[in-house]
Amino acid sequence: MSKTIAINAGSSSLKWQLYEMPAETVIAKGLIERIGLPESVSSVSFDGDKHVTVKDIHNHTEAVAILMNDLKSLAIIDHFSEITGTGHRVVAGGELFKSSVLITDEIAKQIENLAELAPLHNPANAAGIHAFRALLPNATHVAVFDTAFHTTMPPVAYRYPVPNDYYDKYAVRKYGAHGTSHMYVSQKAAEYLGKAPEELKLITAHIGNGVSLTAIDGGKSVDTSMGFTPLAGVMMGTRTGDLDASIIPYIMVKTGITDVNELIDIFNKKSGLAGISGSSSDMRDILKGREEGDEKATLAFDLFINRIQKYIGQYLAVLNGADAVVFTAGIGENSGPVRKAIVDGLSWFGLDIDESKNIVGADGIISTAAAKVKVLVIPTDEELVIARDVEKLSQ
Ligand SMILES: Nc1ncnc2c1ncn2[C@@H]1O[C@H](COP(=O)(O)OP(=O)(O)O)[C@@H](O)[C@H]1O
Ligand SMILES: CC(=O)OP(=O)(O)O
Ligand SMILES: [Mg+2]
């Protein structure tokens, strides 16, 4: 038996789980959320207790330090050397990484260099890798890439209609993200539907602070909504999703912004729900605002739902019909109102929610018996997939 920690740095959160492997027993787990927002929340579940602290956590480096401190101060471990394996989610693997790898100095450098393909994520992922490699020089450290599951996409999905040189010389193509999550929930959905993944056409909707949808045919990703970077696709907590590129020079001229990176930063960090509501990137705040009659929060919600509906429509076309739509991640797992709003507008396609199943803690099929396209909620478990890959690469 050995202890393995899986670390999942998202754009607004850091999730971790400490496992006894190979038994896959969860010893402790933690969630640090609202990173970069006021009143960040850190919670650790261990030994039947939940320890919650609320304070401002400005970035992922601070979050990693809190996690390391909690492991010792809550007596989850006596010595760091008990941890023999660490697994790190890495969002962008580019064309370099098609599966999980053992992290060496060179691999760590390559991950940092891929930050152009995931500016909100790879630096956070690298912060975790750096901190744990320094703390545990003798442990096995593994990188698990969000992009790996999407390497099965055909050129018709991953190429952009730009001059060939941009692909040939600069690898400009769609890479996608959230692959570990899309893979995990699609496999779980197949279990719920009582079929092999090879027999199914699925649309998985990972709706968290980052949002992406994937068309999965026979267990393989054939298209996904995120693109060259996780800025593309549907609207998100702070990201625009797809935009007409002509807006970029237009806004630069109008506002006097001279550095294009400044504008890309605004599209990544100050847009989406945050940009339209003018108040928050967090769906819980948006739902509250909407209930209180806040017009901007209502518009933010409506746009968010509309963009997701349109991608589900696209993927029904890409797959030429689907067996099921699967909701997962922070919003997809927890918000019945969001799921209902999305599905209510897709009734023509044969999606129909059973309201008595669209509840807090929903897990499994939530559609009516008559629905032609099933609807499922599956809590994602990126950490478990990561821990399994650490185990595999430790052999
Ligand atoms: N009960 C809930 N109802 C609605 N939204 C929720 C609920 N719980 C969490 N969320 C939302 O989930 C989002 C964070 O999702 P998560 O998958 O944890 O993010 P990340 O992309 O950082 O991994 C936030 O917008 C948050 O408001
Ligand atoms: C790729 C991405 O957007 O990840 P997250 O949803 O964890 O921010
Ligand atoms: Mg996430």
TrEMBL record:
<protein>
    <recommendedName>
        <fullName>Acetate kinase</fullName>
        <ecNumber>2.7.2.1</ecNumber>
    </recommendedName>
</protein>
<dbReference type="Pfam" id="PF00871">
    <property type="entry name" value="Acetate_kinase"/>
</dbReference>
<feature type="site" description="Transition state stabilizer">
    <location>
        <position position="239"/>
    </location>
</feature>
<feature type="binding site">
    <location>
        <begin position="282"/>
        <end position="284"/>
    </location>
    <ligand>
        <name>ATP</name>
    </ligand>
</feature>
<dbReference type="GO" id="GO:0000287">
    <property type="term" value="F:magnesium ion binding"/>
</dbReference>
<feature type="binding site">
    <location>
        <position position="8"/>
    </location>
    <ligand>
        <name>Mg(2+)</name>
    </ligand>
</feature>
<dbReference type="InterPro" id="IPR043129">
    <property type="entry name" value="ATPase_NBD"/>
</dbReference>
<comment type="function">
    <text>Catalyzes the formation of acetyl phosphate from acetate and ATP. Can also catalyze the reverse reaction.</text>
</comment>
<dbReference type="GO" id="GO:0006085">
    <property type="term" value="P:acetyl-CoA biosynthetic process"/>
</dbReference>
<feature type="active site" description="Proton donor/acceptor">
    <location>
        <position position="146"/>
    </location>
</feature>
<dbReference type="InterPro" id="IPR000890">
    <property type="entry name" value="Aliphatic_acid_kin_short-chain"/>
</dbReference>
<dbReference type="InterPro" id="IPR004372">
    <property type="entry name" value="Ac/propionate_kinase"/>
</dbReference>
<feature type="binding site">
    <location>
        <position position="15"/>
    </location>
    <ligand>
        <name>ATP</name>
    </ligand>
</feature>
<keyword id="KW-0418">Kinase</keyword>
<dbReference type="GO" id="GO:0005737">
    <property type="term" value="C:cytoplasm"/>
</dbReference>
<feature type="site" description="Transition state stabilizer">
    <location>
        <position position="178"/>
    </location>
</feature>
<feature type="binding site">
    <location>
        <position position="382"/>
    </location>
    <ligand>
        <name>Mg(2+)</name>
    </ligand>
</feature>
<comment type="subunit">
    <text>Homodimer.</text>
</comment>
<keyword id="KW-0479">Metal-binding</keyword>
<feature type="binding site">
    <location>
        <begin position="330"/>
        <end position="334"/>
    </location>
    <ligand>
        <name>ATP</name>
    </ligand>
</feature>
<keyword id="KW-0963">Cytoplasm</keyword>
<keyword id="KW-0808">Transferase</keyword>
<dbReference type="GO" id="GO:0005524">
    <property type="term" value="F:ATP binding"/>
</dbReference>
<keyword id="KW-0547">Nucleotide-binding</keyword>
<dbReference type="GO" id="GO:0006083">
    <property type="term" value="P:acetate metabolic process"/>
</dbReference>
<dbReference type="InterPro" id="IPR023865">
    <property type="entry name" value="Aliphatic_acid_kinase_CS"/>
</dbReference>
<comment type="similarity">
    <text>Belongs to the acetokinase family.</text>
</comment>
<keyword id="KW-0067">ATP-binding</keyword>
<feature type="binding site">
    <location>
        <position position="89"/>
    </location>
    <ligand>
        <name>substrate</name>
    </ligand>
</feature>
<feature type="binding site">
    <location>
        <begin position="206"/>
        <end position="210"/>
    </location>
    <ligand>
        <name>ATP</name>
    </ligand>
</feature>
<keyword id="KW-0460">Magnesium</keyword>
<dbReference type="GO" id="GO:0008776">
    <property type="term" value="F:acetate kinase activity"/>
</dbReference>
<comment type="pathway">
    <text>Metabolic intermediate biosynthesis; acetyl-CoA biosynthesis; acetyl-CoA from acetate: step 1/2.</text>
</comment>
